[in-house]
Design a protein that fits this description.
- Keywords: Membrane, Transmembrane, Transmembrane helix.
- This protein has 926 residues and is an alpha+beta fold.
- The chain folds into 4 domains: 213 residues, Up-down Bundle (Multidrug efflux transporter AcrB transmembrane fold), CATH 1.20.1640.10; 186 residues, no CATH class; 240 residues, Multidrug efflux transporter AcrB transmembrane domain (Multidrug efflux transporter AcrB transmembrane fold); 145 residues, no CATH class.
- The protein contains 34 helices and 13 strands.
- The strands form 4 sheets. Strands 3, 6, 7, 8 and 9 form a 5-stranded antiparallel beta sheet that branches.
- The chain is elongated, with a radius of gyration of 35 Å.
């Protein structure tokens, strides 16, 4: 007998058996977990019913104990005077694991970082930049910053720009890149008078003023011209004739001055005060020239302002949420004739308390909150209120015939508690995985940890504090007659809309999904088409984020960036730092390679000024046979030169030769404004410096590399990888509480929603950035709840072998209303961000609304229709398609529109099918 077929089939059968065994094991495990939850919540319900006041007091004590931790939050700026937030792009929005970040930290650890204030001056009314009146206004602004601005230091002294420099060291790096000093030299008053006299002569040629300025300029002044003055004409070069330079200067459209100080507390205070003085003295509105400033603290102060602007929106969101809950559930009580408005308003405050407490927990953990963290309370409200609907529905399902409130809570809490635990667990898993995989992005890490804390604290309050409030509210509740007129009748009619909507949805939506073929085709087609289009176009989503996303709409930063963009067309000057770490200047080979590197950098097409490298000037020309003494002498001579003595403090660390620890050189390049080209330039610099000259051990660094180019380079990959890990985490969390095939369905539906989100981003030209990165992970945490509800109740209590179209009907009859409420509250939770004062939060709101609507539609219509249609097709292919019968549920009686809600409710109460009775009893036993 030939054994080949048996041997060839056995491995396949073995793998199938193992997969089946794993699935059965996981199903048994989920059943065990479900029973354990029932016992836990039953015991908890008895404790709450017997000691409701104590439970409320203890819950409030936990929240209040967390709040003081807000004072311990790490940050660089104060919001409302006591909450610190992270505002720097380096500390908040830079990926710390990138080479660019490590290089920047390496360079600034040796040579401390600096802060700068920049202002751009743009003549108005067709005036020339070199006219005396324009230059006089620019000079006034420079004097304001350099000499007039005073601030109170950390030790209560009145200081200015020169004081900040002197307090640091005699060789301080405080510098001023003055347009006036470049154009007019040191004798400003005399030169301005000469220009005024020249302008009074009406017969003077148009470029006479520029020619006068150029004629008196030194070579060093001319060298800095292209860095401080913007002109539409290409710079003719240092060796150009005076006529060429004067023509270039005559066509100039704007000028830029810079003031640089050390990154110290006094430096920060000076910078902020100088910025206030520029804006406060009316320079931006000057009739002759518009002067807009930008400093290292600008984005920080904008972040603080945005955070403060978000607080009223949080309060408004809380009010809207409470109003919506009251509207839907105000009269939906277990005992007819009663209302529960005060109870629901109090319960709506629990997510708000959780949001505040989560900040405190982050403070106790030693974490900080960025501007992204101010979104946490909104999202806490968006997902936290859902449990109110679950618990109210579970309590009402017990019915008025049970008089003992302890018994009511013992029956209700396990149902609502299990459902709330499952949804909280899946969301926590998504955000926790996102936090673990994003530890290299501090702001996003704290954002996810904050969301985890909000969800856990809200889960505690909703399953301990809120049931205790229900006990106190319903303990002495008795049946009351409905009011027959007046305001009470109108109010109860409005608040009864939730019950009517529940009845209509439970009766109609499931029936359409099960029996209506056109509805099945439309729902499944929309699911498939949107998912496929999302996958196709989502992969083409761009990346990058303008800095203005985190700037308020009314900020003068917009005018500054607009002037820079229109003046320095396509690129801006960038001073690239080049760190020579432990330079081996005694070796001739090292000196030769250093010379080759400097020559290569000087040949770059984007070079703005020749490389300024004191170390190369000191030892680059030494012969290959130079002795240690000759090298020492060359370095000491250069460092001790009175004209270059500040180099020892600014750009040199350590002693000489073998003791020289580090040297810094400077390369001024034109940095493209376009994010893609800027990233390409940075990669080319790294390739040239590190790749072609590794033996020199030079490190190029600039603040824009970790804060812009590195983030631009990795953000898209990080978005996809973090979402992938979050899917895995959610899947693991789901299989704990439900069978494997249902977990696949739930997670697959969420993946489809995420694909649609990426496609929508492409269609609206929204790129992968810090904001969309957050929303993508949030989409997984939000939408998994909807899908879990639907697939769970398609299985729970349903006999094996039941077709999927009938399963979907029973599931929708059980939870469609509550899933819809989850979508509605999520929508309300984020909708107010659409009225935020910064573009980033409006984009966040838009994307959040998209995932809420798409996630709800896919859960309530798309996936059910797809499964019902596949079930119909399968029966047709097997030849078992039968005419539609009435075995799944009795027909809904025909009613008019006015009585539809009550008819639907009566229909659900009159169901005789044992399966339906079981589903009704297990309404929220997930």
């Amino acid at each position: 007998m030939d054994e080949t077929p048996i041997s060839s089939v056995s491995p396949s059968r073995s793998r199938s058996n193992r997969a089946l065994q794993i699935e059965r094991t996981l199903s048994v495990a989920s059943t065990v977990v479900g029973h354990a939850q029932d016992k836990l919540f039953s015991r908890l319900a008895r404790v709450i019913a017997r000691l409701p006041i104590l439970c409320i007091v203890l819950s409030l004590a936990v929240y209040l104990a967390c709040v003081p931790g807000m004072a311990l939050l790490n940050g660089s700026e104060n919001m409302f005077g006591f909450i610190k937030i992270m505002t720097g792009f380096l500390e908040a929005f830079s990926f710390t694991a990138t080479d660019e970040y490590q290089d920047y930290k390496r360079g600034t650890d040796v040579f401390p970082d600096t802060r700068s204030l920049v202002f751009i001056a743009k003549p108005l009314g067709g005036r020339s930049l070199v006219s005396s009146e324009v230059l006089r206004q620019i000079h006034r602004a420079e004097v304001q910053i350099h000499d007039t601005t005073r601030f109170e230091s950390v030790d209560r002294h009145q200081l200015g720009f020169s004081d900040v420099c002197e307090r640091l060291s005699s060789g301080s790096p405080c510098m001023a890149g003055s347009v006036i000093a470049t154009l007019l030299g040191d004798d400003v008053a005399v030169r301005l008078s000469e220009l005024e006299v020249l302008e009074q002569n009406v017969s003077t040629p148009a470029n006479a003023a520029a020619a006068l300025v150029v004629a008196a300029m030194s070579v060093q002044q001319r060298a800095t011209l292209p860095l401080l003055v913007a002109s539409p004409l290409p710079f003719p070069g240092l060796g150009a004739s005076e006529l060429s330079l004067s023509q270039w200067l005559s066509a100039s459209t704007a000028a830029m001055s810079t003031f640089t100080v050390m990154d110290t507390d006094d430096g920060v205070l000076f910078e902020k005060q100088a910025a206030r003085d520029i804006n406060g003295n009316g320079y931006p509105e000057n009739a002759l020239v518009r002067i807009n400033q930008f400093s290292s603290s600008t984005i920080a102060m904008e972040s603080v302002q945005i955070g403060m602007d978000n607080v009223p929106l949080i309060g408004l969101t809380l009010c809207l949420m409470a109003g919506y809950v009251v509207l839907m559930l105000g009269t939906d009580t277990r005992i007819p004739g009663n209302s529960q408005v005060k109870l629901l308003v109090g319960a709506s405050c629990i997510p708000g308390l959780s949001g505040m407490a989560s900040f405190g927990v982050l403070g106790y953990m030693g974490q900080g909150v960025s501007i992204l963290g101010t979104l946490v309370p909104f999202l806490g409200l968006a997902v936290g209120v859902d449990i109110i609907f679950l618990l109210v529905s579970s309590v009402n399902s017990v019915g008025p015939h049970v008089k003992d409130m302890e018994e009511v809570m013992v029956r209700a809490l396990p149902r609502a508690g299990a459902a709330a635990t499952t949804t909280t667990l899946t969301s926590v898993s998504a955000f926790l995985i996102a936090a673990v995989t994003s530890t290299d992005l501090p702001s996003f890490f704290s954002f996810n940890v904050g969301l985890v804390m909000v969800l856990l604290l809200n889960w505690m309050g909703m399953l301990i504090m809120f049931p205790a409030m229900i006990i106190l509210s319903q303990r002495n509740m008795t049946a009351r007659p409905e009011p027959e007129g007046g305001f009470a009748t109108k109010a109860r009619f409005v608040m009864g809309g939730g019950r009517k909507l529940r009845g209509v949805m439970n009766a109609r939506l499931g029936r359409a999904v099960e029996r209506n073929l056109p509805f099945q085709i439309c729902g499944a087609s929309v699911w498939l088409v949107l998912t496929i289009l999302g996958i196709h176009f989502g992969l083409q989503t761009g990346r990058g984020m303008p800095d203005t996303y985190f700037v308020t709409d009314s900020s003068k930063v917009h005018a500054y960036l607009e002037d820079v963009s229109s003046s320095f067309v396509g690129s801006v000057p960038m001073e690239l730092n080049l760190l020579f770490d432990e330079p081996k200047v005694l070796k001739a080979s090292y000196r030769n390679r250093m010379s080759d590197l400097i020559a290569a950098l000087n040949n770059r097409s984007d070079l703005a000024l020749p490389v300024d490298c004191w170390l190369h000037r000191a030892v680059g020309s030494l012969s290959s046979s130079a002795s240690m003494c000759e090298v020492d002498t060359a370095i000491l001579t250069y460092l001790n030169d009175t004209t270059t003595g500040s180099i020892s403090a600014r750009d040199a660390r350590g002693g000489i030769t073998d003791h020289l620890q580090a040297a810094r050189c400077r390369v001024v390049l034109w940095q493209p404004s376009d994010a893609d080209k800027r990233s390409e330039q940075a990669q080319d610099i790294f390739r040239q410096v590190k790749g072609e000259f590794p033996e020199v051990n030079a490190v190029p660094y600039h603040l824009s590399f970790p804060t812009q180019t590195a983030r631009y380079r990795v953000i898209k990959d990080k978005t996809f990888s973090t979402a992938g890990f979050a899917f895995i985490g959610v899947f693991v969390a789901v299989i704990i509480t439900m069978p494997v095939h249902l977990a696949f369905l739930a997670v697959g539906n969420v993946m489809a929603v995420t694909c649609v989100l990426f496609g929508f981003m492409w269609a609206c030209n929204i790129t992968c950035n810090v904001i969309s990165y957050s929303v993508c992970v949030m989409a997984i945490g939000f939408c998994v709840d909807y899908s879990c509800h639907i697939v769970h109740f398609a299985h729970h209590g349903v006999p094996p072998g039941t077709p999927w179209d009938k399963r979907m009907r029973h599931s929708l009859e059980a939870v469609s209303f509550d899933v819809m409420q989850g979508c509605s509250t999520a929508f309300l939770g984020v909708a107010m961000l659409g009225f935020g004062t910064a573009q980033a939060f409006r984009i966040f709101a838009l994307l959040s609304v998209v995932i809420t609507l798409v996630g709800g539609f896919f859960a309530l219509v798309g996936l059910p229709c797809l499964l019902a249609l596949l079930s119909r097709i399968a029966r047709a292919c097997m030849g078992s398609e039968t005419p539609e019968d009435e075995t799944s549920a009795p027909a809904l009686p025909a009613t008019d529109a006015c009585d539809e809600g009550e008819a639907a409710k009566q229909y659900l109460q009159d169901m005789e099918n044992p399966l339906d009775v079981e589903l009704s009893a297990e309404h929220f036993s997930m």
